[in-house]
Design brief:
Strand content: 15-25%
Order of helices and strands: HHHHEEEEEEEEEEH
Helix content: 55-70%
Structural class: alpha+beta
Number of helices: 5
Distance between the termini: 88 Å
Shape: elongated
Radius of gyration: 39 Å
């Protein structure tokens, strides 16, 4: 009986195990489908974030350019106002001179020309008096015309000043509204990315994403080296070797992450430094060079890369906006971007990296 019971129980155990295995397989398939769907949505959200951040960067750059134009125009307006003050003084002087002539003419009476003819018997004196009278008349007309010209220029300058101020104020206000709208859109996209990222992180670790980000950056650097050799041969850049320990940091800020410091996930270490800074803080080029990359890159946000020659590169990531384009030459200390938190940061910071022969080096050794 015991043998019979065991024989009967074995098929039931096998059936239960088979059923459990099938259920596990179904659960795995469902998890994969969920993961794929979440990854697809996450990728779409990241793409939307990329678009939004680039648009915000463009708007910030446009507003900066407009602000510079406003400053230039205010200087122009100041010059016009100075000219206006000069013309006002000139107008008063012309009015005083003309008033003196008119008073003199009135004192002589309306028939001054005939009086001169009748009051002088000496032909020589008569000729001198008539010549003097004609001179005064001509001078009076010239003063009247000069006063008219002054008044006309004054009116033109006043109109120009008003037009310049109204147009620029309108444009500045329009750009500010546009920037506010784009920033709001960016915040909405960041929220969407955060939601889907939470779903994805239940199935994949942050380490995998960081590895993917570094791999993408490495591939980009290798591609840039190839492009520099092909499209920028023999350029007059001397590299950073002679500037070791003399370079200025691109921004002033606290070191939030040091070179070689272990990251929170796995064995990954920082290949650059992370500098805490303010949103919109000016980012400066550490040395002369040519911009070889200026775009959005996953994990680094709005990123700008400068080639300094001799296989030396400097990288500046997470910017709010980029102020230079690929191919632009930059001088030491020149503003190339404004710091931000693009690429997934929660607070503003600048990621800064120096690479020599495609190998990251400690920026603290090069900057002071």
């Amino acid at each position: 009986m015991l043998a019979s019971s065991a024989t009967g129980a074995e098929p039931r155990d096998q059936a239960a195990a088979k059923q459990q295995l099938e259920e596990l397989r179904r659960a795995i398939r469902a998890t994969r489908r969920t993961l794929q769907a979440n990854q697809a949505r996450y990728s779409k959200a990241v793409l939307a974030l990329q678009t939004a951040e680039k648009k915000v960067g463009q708007s910030v750059r446009a507003l900066r350019q407009l602000t510079e134009k406003l400053t230039q125009t205010e200087t122009k307006i100041k010059t016009l106002e100075n000219r206006q003050a000069e013309l006002e003084l000139k107008k008063k002087q012309q009015q005083s001179a003309l008033a003196a002539q008119l008073r003199a003419a009135y004192a002589m009476g309306e028939q001054e020309y005939i009086k001169i003819l009748l009051s002088l018997d000496d032909p020589h004196a008569l000729t001198q008096s008539l010549t003097y009278f004609k001179y005064l008349t001509k001078a009076r007309k010239q003063q009247i015309q000069a006063l008219r010209d002054t008044l006309t220029e004054l009116a033109r300058i006043k109109q120009t000043i008003e037009q310049e101020r109204n147009a620029l104020r309108s444009l500045v206000e329009q750009k500010r509204r546009e920037q506010a709208r784009l920033v709001q859109h960016k915040l909405e996209q960041e929220k969407a990315v955060a939601n889907w990222k939470a779903n994805v992180e239940r199935a994949e670790t942050k380490l995998q994403r960081l590895l993917a980000n570094e791999k993408e950056l490495q591939a980009l650097i290798e591609k840039l080296h190839q492009m520099i050799e092909v499209f920028m041969p023999g350029q007059s850049l001397v590299g950073l070797d002679r500037l070791r320990g003399k370079l200025r940091w691109p921004v002033q800020g606290r070191l939030a992450a040091r070179f070689g410091q272990k990251r929170p996930f796995g064995a990954l270490r920082w290949q650059g430094v992370l500098l805490d800074t303010k949103e919109g803080q000016a980012v400066h080029a550490i040395s002369a060079g040519r911009v070889v990359f200026a775009d959005w890159l996953r994990g680094y946000g709005l990123l700008i890369i400068i080639d300094h020659g001799k296989n030396d590169l400097s990288l500046y990531g997470h910017n709010q906006t980029i102020l230079k384009q690929v191919g632009d030459w930059v001088e030491p200390g020149e503003v190339i971007a404004l710091a931000g938190k693009t690429g997934g940061l929660s607070t503003p910071a600048l990621y800064f990296e120096i690479r020599r022969n495609n190998t990251p080096v400690n920026p603290a050794i090069w900057c002071r």
